[in-house]
Hints:
Elements: E1 14-18, E2 22-25, E3 30-33, E4 44-50, E5 57-64, E6 73-77, E7 96-100, E8 103-106, E9 109-112, E10 128-134, E11 137-142, E12 145-151, E13 160-164, E14 169-174, H1 183-189, E15 211-213, E16 219-222, E17 233-235, E18 246-253, E19 262-266, E20 286-290, E21 293-296, E22 299-302, E23 317-322, E24 328-332, E25 335-341, E26 349-353, E27 358-363
Amino acid sequence: PKMASAPTGEGYRFHHLCGRRAKISNRSRTAERTQSRGEFNNAVVITSQPLRDHEALQVKIDSKVPTWTGSVLIGATSTPPGNFTFPPSISGLASAWVCNGECVWRNGEKILNSYGHQRLAFLSEGDTVGIVRRGSCLHFLVNGKDLGVAEMHLPFGRVYGIIDIYGQCTKVTIVEPPAGPSDAQVAGLASASVSAVGDMPRFHRRCGNLVEVGEDGRTALRKNCLGEFNHGVVLTDRVLRPSELFEVEIVKMVDKWAGSIEIGVTTHSPEDLDFPSTMTNLHTGTWIMSGTGVMHNGDTIKENYGRSLDTLKKGERVGVMRKDNGNLLFFINGRELGVAAMDLPREVYAVVDLYGQCAEVRIMQAETSGGNAGSYRQENVVAG
């Protein structure tokens, strides 16, 4: 039977399903490799619970042997425990993100070298290694120190922690969370807290036919912008948090076409959306500011809502926010335009349509806002 997820703050547990040389004990907190002096692999374990936002999974190295080379590996997989096929080692595993020595691997391909400048093989008994999800970003930890962003485009769905008790490492124990509120609880209580730079929403790689998303996920460009005016729809890689301002700066304009940038929110995820040529053609789960008006599922619900987006120039900014009370707000150059719609669903993605004259945008670093909707940090701000 499936094990129920532990409530936030109660810590993680290893699933009873595991590699053939792994043994789970200590109320599912400890995992060890049996016959560790004669076998160096086949001791992969997985958590029963998916990684919770801002709540680290950390394990302490309980014992090591000098017999082998290599040591503990840690990562995450989108495959749930019941469907997971336990490999001899998680190095090179598909549907997984793995920290292996100083490198980070995604689906068997190396994506980062010299990550964190910390060799996991050099860790000693008593040291800890960990992993934490922060929105769409994945971070690894050593002795509680965050080594930085390892992956910026984690899927929105569940991912589970995986530990490979490999080589010299023979036994690990999950570190219980400290007494008091967890990081996730603190983040939830601090309604005006600033989103971490690595945790800001990024553009999803799955996007409109003519969109090119930058390496860091912060820029989106409509290719062949002088020959094509549409097929430039792009969504964020995660849902917006309550009262989180999502804002973009116009980086490139062209002196051709009618119309320009459109922005809004949608209940459709980037993984599932059949991308339309323009978001105003989408007739379900979508609220868009286009020109001076606001549209819901292709129908205009507000006219003369604010300054026309068609008049924006390079360097100007436009933003959107779903308040915690379900109200939808739009912003131009940091100025709130008022309530555009009410009673929005809780989970919505931000969407930008690089339409007409608007050819490229960049996401601005933003923060959540409890009562002051215009409160945010800015980069390269243009006065408005």
